[in-house]
Specification:
- With 331 residues, the chain is α/β, with parallel strands linked by helices.
- The strands form two sheets. A five-stranded mixed sheet has the order 1-4-5-6-7. A two-stranded antiparallel sheet has the order 2-3.
Length: 331
């Protein structure tokens, strides 16, 4: 399901959501409040949801928990189906995939004799957790994919399955700051991308949150393992073997991140100066071309925009002898 570049997310998040604290933080912090308020999180119980689907012949990166919900005096078990969607691009077939996954999950419950057909099927709350850079644009109910909308007498026969989407990138840092949990700190680190300065601020926030957590030591170990995976994937030039605890080793990590921030700023200044020199060279060539051949067409502008400094210097010389734009840019 996920590309190789996102395997660290799959394994890291699967570990996070193997702990009931993080499942609770996800639902309480990011799901509709009216749903979270009904759940008794002390009854959370993990289930096996990892299987191969015959239709797609793929492993599903999912996590399944059950939790008791009391509604109008009746207590029943609801399955939380968390699908980890960490592909870089939005999959617009998600409603179809999710319907298939849920059907396979029900079949698995029957096969494992967790339920029987005579008992009926338990309710499921499907959640898709997505962290791609492109904002989510897929439909959230398979019924919405059916076009044109069928007449009313046929609508009752159409499939319905809605999932709740948690799109990490949609949350601003201000919004995440209102949810003071380790998981919201993880989202902040994710949203920082490859900016070491922003990531440094996000790590500082997550350390502060962990220090205030009631089960600090356990949370610290889990988040530290996740951070190490994330920094390795980002290619951080840090000796991660020495990082055992975000809380205990925060000074060492802060120093390393500060060094990365300094390198990032220096690189940014160097790239800025280089781009400035390139733009000056483009302007010289553009002026020469306009003086000799008239207004510069778009296809030539595209070549100027993509040229390196050596190409631009060559064109400064070539324009003196060229008889036309096609001749000058034939290569």
């Amino acid at each position: 399901m996920a590309s190789t570049t996102h395997k660290h997310h799959d394994s890291g998040y699967k570990e996070l959501f193997s702990y009931p604290e993080f499942v609770r933080q996800l639902i309480e912090g990011f799901a509709p409040a009216e749903i979270a308020q009904l759940m008794d999180f002390t009854t959370l119980k993990q289930h096996n949801g990892h299987y191969i689907t015959p239709m797609f012949e793929e492993k599903i990166e999912d996590v399944v928990w059950s939790v008791e919900v009391t509604w109008e005096g009746v207590t029943q078990e609801v399955f939380l189906y968390l699908l980890l969607e960490f592909q870089s691009a939005v999959d617009r077939t998600m409603p179809i995939r999710l319907m298939h996954y849920v059907a396979c999950f029900y079949s698995e419950l029957l096969k494992q004799k967790v339920i029987t057909p005579s008992q009926g099927l338990p309710p499921i709350f499907p959640v898709v957790l997505y962290n791609g850079t492109e904002r989510w644009a897929a439909k959230t109910d398979i019924f919405e994919m059916i076009t044109p909308e069928p007449p009313s007498f046929l609508q009752v026969y159409q499939p319905h399955l809605r999932y709740f989407l948690i799109d990490e990138g949609r949350y601003t840092e201000e919004q995440l700051g209102l949810v003071q949990t380790p998981l919201s700190g993880v989202f902040s680190v994710e949203n920082a991308g490859a900016s070491w300065e922003t990531l440094q601020q996000a790590v500082d926030r997550i350390v502060t949150i962990i220090q205030a957590a009631p089960n600090k030591e356990r949370i610290d170990k889990v988040i530290t393992r996740w951070i190490k995976r994330h920094l390795q994937w980002l290619g951080a030039d840090i000796n991660l073997e020495q990082l055992e605890s975000l809380v205990e080793d925060k000074a060492m990590l802060a120093e390393n991140l500060e060094n990365l921030v300094k390198k990032e700023r220096l690189q940014g200044r160097q790239e800025g100066r280089q781009e400035g020199r390139l733009e000056e060279a483009r302007e010289v060539v553009r002026t020469q071309l306009t003086f000799k051949f008239g207004e510069v067409p778009e296809w030539v502008e595209a070549k100027l925009a993509n040229a390196n400094h050596d190409q631009l210097k060559g064109w400064m010389r070539d324009v003196l002898f060229a008889n036309g734009l096609e001749e000058m840019f034939k290569h």
